[in-house]
Amino acid sequence: MKATLLKRGATPDHSFSVARHDFPYFLKVWHYHVELELVYIVRSEGTRFIGDNIDRFQAGELILIGSNLPHMYQNDNAYFEPDSKKRAEAHAIHFNPTFLNTTFSDIPELVEFHTLMEKAKLGLKFSARTVELVGPKIEALDKVDDLSRMLGFLAILADLCKDGDAKTIASSGFVNHFEQAGDLKLDKVYDYVMHHFQEDINVDDIADLVSMNKSSFCRYFKRTTQKTFTEFLNEIRIGFACKMLVERQMGILEISYYCGYNNISHFNRQFKKKMGLSPSAYLLSRKA
């Protein structure tokens, strides 16, 4: 799961880009870029990966992804069937944090924008009320002249700033470690966990992976990510379990074993601790 650095953003004669994507399915590329990305999903559903968060996405979702935050949208299997009529349609706006040739923090009147950019480092999911307000404005951006587009974009950012119900997505621990240039230890740990979380993972083996003893590794991981390694591993496993539950690929017992839990009671406890409700209640809530 090594993230790929991609180039996004505007042409030399524009300060931000606006694009409408309409494909059979989204590309499955785990990537990041300097530019912030505002994504409005018009048609599509599947699994969204942002930082260390795994969750479902569907039509009507509005997400702001911060600078250098790894992410990927993966459509459900039905989108890849040979005779599929499904489409993945979304509007995406990419802009550099200094797209006004200055940082938002340099202009007193834009202090709310600066706060929004800081929150976006973890990724932001906006409320249904804001989606209803902002969605049509985003769709209209590619139908107007350059000046109107700029003013419209600033109006959209102002609307986003006012959403007190926006929810952060990734954990601060993941983002902090990803931003630390040269921290190869956590890169190794994260890559290993993402590929082996379905297996029995021993902290001693992870410590050996980065050439540390167990106690030193545990202190290092907690200091760097603000969570224990066990908490991090459970977050990854439960996030994947949510994906499996919603896609109804297996029953709850099978999913618990598939996600690395050898005890259904332990799985239920960890799931409720993370999600606030039991796996069966989570399933019912997603059917509503």
Write the layout of secondary structure elements.
Elements: E1 4-5, E2 16-23, E3 31-32, E4 36-43, E5 46-50, E6 53-57, E7 62-65, E8 71-75, E9 88-95, H1 111-120, E10 124-125, H2 128-140, H3 146-161, E11 167-168, H4 172-179, H5 184-196, H6 203-209, H7 214-225, H8 229-247, H9 252-258, H10 264-275, H11 279-287
Parallel strand pairs: 1-3
Antiparallel strand pairs: 2-9, 4-7, 4-9, 5-6, 5-8, 7-10, 10-11
Structural description of this entry:
- The protein is α+β, with helices and mostly antiparallel strands and 288 residues long.
- Helix content is 44%, strand content 18%.
- It has helices spanning 111-120, 128-140, 146-161, 172-179, 184-196, 203-209, 214-225, 229-247, 252-258, 264-275, 279-287, and strands at residues 4-5, 16-23, 31-32, 36-43, 46-50, 53-57, 62-65, 71-75, 88-95, 124-125, 167-168.
- The strands form 3 sheets. It has a 6-stranded antiparallel β-sheet. Strands 6-5-8 form a 3-stranded antiparallel β-sheet. Strands 1-3 form a two-stranded parallel ribbon.
- The longest helix is centred in the last third of the chain and has 19 residues, at 229-247.
- The mean pLDDT is 86.
Key words describing this protein structure:
single chain, 11 helices, globular, three-stranded antiparallel sheet, 288 residues, alpha+beta, six-stranded antiparallel sheet
Number of helices: 11
Percentage of residues in DSSP E strands: 15-25%
Query: Strand pairing plus helix content: what structural class?
Result: alpha+beta
Detail the poorly predicted runs. none
The global form is globular
Proportion of residues in helical segments: 40-55%
Rg is 20 Å
- End-to-end Cα distance, whole Å, is 33 Å
Number of strands: 11
Instruction: Please state the average pLDDT score.
Output: 86
Give, in order, the helices and strands: EEEEEEEEEHEHHEHHHHHHHH
Largest sheet: 6 strands, antiparallel
Strands in their spatial order, largest beta sheet: 2-9-4-7-10-11
